[in-house]
Design brief:
The protein is mainly alpha-helical. Helices cover 44% and strands 3% of the residues. The chain has helices at residues 2-21, 29-33, 37-43, 63-69, 85-89, 98-101, 104-109, 117-121, 136-142, and strands spanning 70-71, 80-81. A two-stranded antiparallel sheet has the order 1-2. It is globular.
C-alpha cells in the first residue's frame, strides 16, 4: 500500500513538472479579440491578417513558407493561420488574464513580448524569396493595429 502511494505521489509530481516546464501556450486571436476588439479590427485589415491566403497552395505545404505565415508554428497542435497577435506579442496563456494585462510588468513576466525590430526580422529577412529591404521605422508608421488599448 505504501509503495503504491509513493508511486502515485511521484506520478503527480512528474505530471506537475511536465505542465510547468512546457512554458507559455498559444491561445489564438479569438481570445485576444475579446478584450482588444479595436486592435483586432485594425489588424484584420492588414497583410498580416491575410498572410496564409497570400501563399499559393503548394507554398502552404512548405515549411520555409508556413513558419512565417502562421502563428506558433510547431508549438501548437492547432494551425493558427496568419500572423496573429501572438506571433508578435508571444503566447498569451499566462498573460491573458485581465488582472495581469492591467500591469505591464506582470504581463511581461508572464510572457508578453513588446515587439521590436528583432521581432519583425524573424520573418522579414533575406530568407524570404520575396524579400524587400525591411525598414522598421517605416513599418511602424504603417502600423499593424491601433496602439491605444480599449
Amino acid at each position: 500500500m505504501k509503495k503504491g502511494l509513493v508511486i502515485l505521489a511521484m506520478l503527480v509530481i512528474v505530471s506537475v513538472l511536465i505542465v510547468f516546464s512546457q512554458g507559455h501556450k498559444y491561445i489564438g486571436d479569438t481570445k485576444c479579440k475579446m478584450c482588444h476588439i479595436k486592435q483586432y479590427k485594425s489588424w484584420a485589415e492588414t497583410k498580416h491578417a491575410k498572410a496564409w491566403d497570400a501563399l499559393k497552395p503548394e507554398e502552404q505545404k512548405k515549411e520555409e513558407c508556413i513558419q512565417c505565415h502562421v502563428t506558433g508554428y510547431k508549438e501548437t497542435e492547432e494551425l493558427l493561420k496568419n500572423v496573429q497577435c501572438e506571433a508578435c506579442h508571444g503566447p498569451g496563456s499566462d498573460y491573458k488574464d485581465i488582472k495581469i494585462m492591467k500591469d505591464k510588468e506582470k504581463a511581461i513576466a508572464a510572457g508578453l513580448i513588446i515587439p521590436n525590430e528583432e521581432t519583425c526580422k524573424k520573418c522579414h529577412n533575406k530568407k524570404s524569396p520575396f524579400f524587400k529591404e525591411f525598414n522598421f521605422e517605416e513599418a511602424k508608421k504603417k502600423g499593424v493595429h491601433e496602439l491605444k488599448s480599449n
